Amino acid sequence: MKKNTKGTIYGYIRVSTVAQRDDRQWIALTDFGIPKKCIFVDKQSGKDFDRPAYTKMMKRLGHGDTLVVKSLDRLGRNYDEMTRQLDIITKEKEAAIVVIDLPLLDTRNKYGDDLTAKLISNLVIQVFSYVAETERNMNHQRTMEGLAAARARGVTLGRKPMEKPAGFPAIHAQWEAGKVSARKAAEALGVSTPTFLKWANASTDA
Predict the structure, then answer these.
(1) 16 is catalytic
(2) Selection from 73-87, 93-107, 108-122 with the highest mean pLDDT
(3) Are 65 and 8 in contact (CB under 8 A)?
């Protein structure tokens, strides 16, 4: 594992979904000099801290170690959670935190005496945690406003509904008569069973 003058340097990566790519975070951490075996990855939402890789890493993180993340919001999605985790890392674990996208948020002792370093680091943590949450809330608001504007223009949002195949009425009639199961009816139409049942129920209610 990569060692600094005081301990081990770990990296942490988080993406919100399995499908989301984490390439930029990997590049940033490996460019920082962290070996792959010291990088922990979670692919799920940051709305809470029930994250296997993060938990495993935090059990290893200790006095004199350093945790590196690409951006502050990798630790959480709101001000309280980010500041709580930063407190755990810097105070309870007595480790350092480095945020690559925020050069000022580097709690390794580069400001002079320990007291000054801690004071500056705490101020930086508070400010950037607040900024990160504010930016996320603004992005959410912009998204909601954009969706509302699109609806006002008559834009249809979301996935376009699948059209029923031409053979649906005949297959549906056989299903209603009990001649075929929903699964067989769906297979005959080339759709999933839930899709067939959705169409069938809609036709029955119409």
Answers:
(1) yes
(2) 93-107
(3) yes
